[in-house]
Structure formats: structure tokens, C-alpha cells
Amino acid sequence: MIALSLTSIQGVATAQQHDQSGNQSKIVPGEQAPPADPGQRNFGGMLPATGAQRPARRPMTPRPEPKIETVALEQISMSDPYIYPDEKSHTYYLTGTGGRLYKSKDLKMWTGPFSIIDLSGTWMDGLFVAAAEIHHIGNKYYYAGTWSDHNHLIEYVPLRYNVPRNQTQLLVADSPEGPYKPLVADHEFCLGPENWDIIDGTLYEENGTTYMVFVHEWTQLIDGTMDYMPLSKDLTHRTAEPTTMFRASAAPWSKEMNSIGEATFGLKMPGWVTDGPEMFRTKTGKLGMLWASWGEHRYAQGIAYSTSGSIKGPWVHQKEAFKEDNSGHGMLFTTFEGKRLFIIHHVEANGPRKPQIWEADDSGDKLVLGKRYL
Amino acid sequence: MYTLSAHSDSIFQNNNNITLHYLAMKKLLTLVMSGVLSSAMMAQLPETISQPVAKKQLVPTVTIPAPPGSKGFGMPQTTKPANGKAPAPRPMRGSASANDPRDITTTTLEEMSMSDPYVFADPATKTYYLTGSGGAIYKSKDLKTWTGPYGAYDTRGTWMADAKFVAAAEIHQVNGKYYYAASFGSNELVDVVPRRYNVRRHQTMILEADKADGPYKLKNTNPNYDYLPHSWDIIDGTIYVENGQPYMVFVHEWMQTFDGTMEYVKLSPDLSKTISEPVMLFRASESPCPLEMVGNGEMTYGLKLPGWVTDGPELFRTKTGKLGMLWASWGVKRYLQCIAYSQSGTIDGPWIQEPKPFIDNNTGHGMFFTTLEGKRMFIVHHADGDGPRKPQIWEVDDSGDKVVLGKRFI
């Protein structure tokens, strides 16, 4: 696009979407992809297929804090579960979509949900958070979560989608229990390119550089990608523009959404999904990435391995999904006893998404799924 | 392109790792304008500027090869013909220049191989002109025997002079002038879609002549003119006039956009330049006829490119005044011919896709024409297996609101 020369815009009458100061004016929503058939399988709620937007957000009345309880893992419903085992306090911390925190000493009984973030003074204040994660880097704790502002469109993809602002952002705290506050105080700050629809970012360190590995959404791109961007030492900004690692369609188990009858937000949107990147190394030093998409049996967990052993890839996909049957967006963690475990969410029929913990063997070059642990 | 927003940081300007995500390309134009030029400055630009803004070197991306033995468009043909003879080499003419010497012969239509055939019936000379991919012109008085190939254009001194690719040529008569619309390609890399495709320059260009034989020449005074943004992969543009306003209706290729689109721009009265921003009419995936290419086992130029194809728009009106568009894609029986009708009767649609192909079985990229005797006909190309693409002519009935395919004519 930098290749775009003046010659190519000659003859174009006006730049209607921009004012004279060069600021981008409001994106005008338009007709979206065709609506789902009645009763069709559908991820997420229904959105109007016309130019109308989601109903305006409810006025923010402080909702009562949920009651803190101690419950078994089976009683918790949560998408995109993530566990951070804190050596210091010998406590497992569980978070995910919704962004609240649960604590446990034994992985079985969990106390929560605790509110641990303070977003006042930023565009994210009061917005829903997805795919939250906790990382310990240096002597700080970082909370990576994805915020979505449906009242701030970043692009209209004609006859397809009104793309809302989606960004994975970093919060910081001195304790794993928070309170986590924005790493960059600027109200409008975005860590990724502002007009990219970015979700599910995770942190990964290689040779002293911390990278954010994230999803550039298929709703904007049709074929979703996995990308990385290097971050500054203090993680406050990216130091280079993102690099694409792979596209969803490159994996044999990831299927085109319309071809498997999956509608999204009530729309028949064609394309291939990338979700939930999580980096890991096997005991033999191989670099792998867990990531999720939709396949023959709905939501699915896949793995790609880096042939070079570095984030730069090339990334080679496993032929088969690691786990399917409407399960995905999982991650690996190590118990205080040194056992490798895999936490993932699973959906039974039309039920809620519920976390499950499985054993995983990472002693060889490839991760092998073991038996159900919890 | 994202870095060219008002918030772009200069530290990124020299980074070669910028990923070029295609879908924001549509906004590119305006982003560049916002980042580099204010609209007030734009208004003062003379019409024929040729110096480019500072241009970044594009780094070609890795592409994903097709598995051995795949079927697909533009692939090396591995199957042998039944008669044991070596398959006829595909004609890959790089040029249909009127300045090149040619051997002119007369053959029957059945003997010809041609993709994307287009017939223009010229009342002035009472002659049928046939052109298509390759770009050369054949002439006939009866549609059965054809004399050619004649050179069509003189592009010396323009970027098209060294074109390696001339596809889907058409001849139109507008306001007494003859116009030749064809897609020209060069090896210039104009965009990179990471891990998918290195996009070369492809533009549908409109050339002008005083008679149907040509030679057709670029009317625009800028020899490096592009009708659409330079970095867009544009093919199969056709000319359509509505209420006195000429339009180019074109394909923005799926290889760059994944889900190919059909779009239009308004043209100046002499068709020499574009005078509006592109407007999208529909995406390939909206029609039930096309299937996703990789899922359907169709490879493209030996690459595993997922997505949905738009090809060959051709506008027509039925006798009852309904506005329709023929266009082509790939589906259950390989190449096929789709039709969409405009609900409003104008180019702005909405365009409603017919649920079934107009013709399929590896047949498509056709157009309607009227014989000098007033009979409506449909010319289309068909391929038997991996054989060459050959033109066929069919009768059609356009007396109702929807065109009905008749019997084979030639």
C-alpha cells in the first residue's frame, strides 16, 4: 500500500470519509453478511444484519459485585480459561473471559470471583474483557485482556461486517491478585495498530525480547491470521509492526465457517477463524503454539510447531486437531508438583462453556494429550 | 498501510516486516490521503501526475504449493489425451499488438481455442468481431468461419507495451467511438498478502479507436495510468452505460481479497479516466453457486489459495427491461456461469443472485450479443476435462424477466 502512488488516486473526486485536518471521521456502518437461518448453529448473540448497530450499551450502573464463594471447578462456567500458578503464594490463579479471578490451592476448589482490574481513565472502562491472562515478567505481574468497544467502529467491510474496536491491552500490578492498572495511562492508547481487529493476545519471551502473539480477526480479514509484534522492554509499546505467522486456512483441521454451517453473531460470515494463541516448549525444546478454530465437530484445539524453534517459524500445522468436539482455547501450565496440565473449555450441546483440566505429556517433540484430570 | 494513519510513527517507516492485510486496502486510498495529503491539496492536483510518493520495497511472501496431482486453473496438465497425442500447448500470447506480424488464417469456430470469448456485432461493417483472452481479434460474416488473428492495439509508449498478460478483451461502441477493454498485467509487484500471494500489477484498461478493427490506443495522456488504485488486482472490467453515464464494472480479485468482489467506477464521458471511488456490488460467496476453492479441490496457478472467485461480469437487459449481470466462478462441476439481477433495475442494485448456475459443467465467462438479424445469442467458453477452452454459441430467450438458455447454435 505504500506502493500506492499519486497516479492511482488521480481522478478520485473527493475523500468523503475524511475531514480537512486529516483526521479519520466516523466509520459509517452498513449492510452486513446475510443473517443466519432460523435455528442455525451460531456463535455469540444475534446482531442486526443491516446497518443498524448493536443496541447502545446500557448506562453504566455499578452492578453489585458477585458474591465470593468457594466452588468446585465443575461448577464454574468460563470461556478461554487460563491458569497462573504463583510459586510465591503457592496459589493457582484462574482467569479467562469475563476477566475476574479465582484462587485455589489444589485446582479442585476455587474461591472467587474477585474483581482485580481498575480501568478508570481509559476507553476500556466498563467494557467486557475476554481471554484474560496473567504473566509474571521481571518483578511485575501483567494482565493481558481483550476489550471490545462496539460503539467505536474501526472499519466497515462492505456486505460483511461492521468491525468494532478490539484490542489486547496490558495492565500491570505488583501482586498477582492485582489491582491491575493500565500500563499506559493515555485514554485512547492501543497496543496494536488501531484499525486492526485484534483479540486473544498473549505474551511470549524469546532471547530477551517479549512479544505479543495475537489474533488478527477473520471477521475483518476473512482468513484470520496469527501475528506477533515485539514489545519494548517495559512492554508499553510495540517496537515494530506485526508479522504474520500463519493463516487459519493453512491448518487442515480448520474449516471454512459457512461450509460447516457455523454462523457468527447471527450472520453467515464466510471465512476461517484464528483464536487463542498460547506458546509452549516441550521438554525437548521444541516451540509449539496451541490455537483454536472451528472444524467438523465445532470448536477445536490445534497445535502448530515452529520448524526453526523460534517465533519466526516457519509454523507447521498438525494434520489433526489436538482436541475437538467443541473444545478449545486451552493452555498448558505446570503444577507445584511439576506436573504438566492442560486447561481448556468445552461445551456440551447448547450448554455453557466449562473449563476442563487434562493431563498432557510434553516429554517428546510433540505434545500428547493424556487423560482427564478434573 | 495501517501505519499511514494519522498516528503513524516514523520509526516504522523503514520496517520491512510490515504485514499488508488486504481488507484495509479499500481504505488505503483515504488513509494515504489523510496521512500524506489533505483533501484540499488533493483538489489542486493536476489530472496527470505521474511521480509516485515514496515507495517501499515489497518483500515477496512465501506461498503454499498445491499437493501433487491437484486439479486447478493454470496448473501444468498432467493427464494425457485419449488419442495418445501430446496435448496442444496452451496459447500464451503475451501481446495482441497491431504492430506485430501475424499469420492470418480462416478457421471454423470449433477449431478455435479461446478463453473468455466476446463478440461485437458491428453494424457499420456488417461484421462480427470476436476477441477474448489473448486479446487478438477475429472477424466473421456468419459466426461460423473466422479470419484472424489480427492485432488489436498500439500500446507503444505506455506501461502496457511490455505486458505479459492480456485477458478478457471486449469491444464496445459508445457515443460513436469504439472502445477496447482488456486486462493487462506486468511483473511489477504491487502488493504482498502474507503466506498467500504476491500480487502483480493487473488493471483493466480502456483503449479507443475510430473503427472496430482498431488499432486501439490509450486516450488518457498519462502513459502509466491505472483506472483503479495501483495496488489493486483488477481484471475482467467491462463497459456499461446507464442514463448516459459510462461505468466500468470489474472484478477485484479473490487472490488479493479472499472473497472476490464485483465493483464499479464511473468513467468520464470519453472513458479516458475514472471519476468516482469504487462501489462494491457483491461478493462471490453471496451466491450459492460458487464453492470455496480449496474445499472444492481447485488449486490456482499451482497454489493452495483458499477463497471464492468472481470472474467475467457482463451486463445485459432483458426485453422486459430487467437489468442482469452474467458472471463466472467455480463450483460443483468446476467452472460455471452465474447470473444476478438488479432489483432496482439500476447498477446500484441490490443484486439478487440466481440460486442455480445459468450453465455449468466447466463452462463460463460468457456474454450475450445480438446478431445482425436481431437474434439474441450467448457465447461462452467450455473445457472438456483438461482440454483447451473452446468457445460455444448458444441460443437464448430474453423475452421474459429472466434469460432462458436455449439450444446449442454452434
What does this structure look like?
The complex is a heterodimer of chains A (374) and B (410). By secondary structure, chain A is mainly β. Chain A has a single domain, classed as Glycosyl hydrolase domain, family 43 (Tachylectin-2, Chain A). In chain A, 2% of the residues lie in helices and 42% in strands. Chain A has helices at residues 6-9, 218-221, and strands spanning 41-43, 69-72, 82-86, 91-95, 101-104, 109-114, 129-137, 140-157, 161-173, 181-182, 198-206, 209-216, 225-230, 243-247, 262-264, 275-281, 287-295, 298-306, 315-317, 327-334, 340-347, 353-361, 368-372. In chain A, strands 2-6-5-4-3 form a 5-stranded antiparallel sheet, with no helix packed on it. In chain A, a hairpin with a 5-residue loop joins strand 21 (340-347) and strand 22. The model of chain A is unreliable at 1-23 (pLDDT under 50). Chain B is mainly β and 410 residues long. Chain B is built from 3 helices and 23 strands. In chain B, the strands form 6 sheets. A 5-stranded antiparallel sheet of chain B has the order 2-6-5-4-3, with no helix packed on it. In chain B, strands 7-8-9-10 form a 4-stranded antiparallel sheet, with no helix packed on it. The N and C termini of chain B lie far apart (50 Å). Chain B is globular. Mean pLDDT of chain B is 85; it is low at 1-52, 77-82 and 86-92. Chain B has a single domain (46-408), classed as 5 Propeller (Tachylectin-2, Chain A). At the A-B interface, helix 1 and strand 14 of A face helix 1, helix 2 and strand 14 of B.
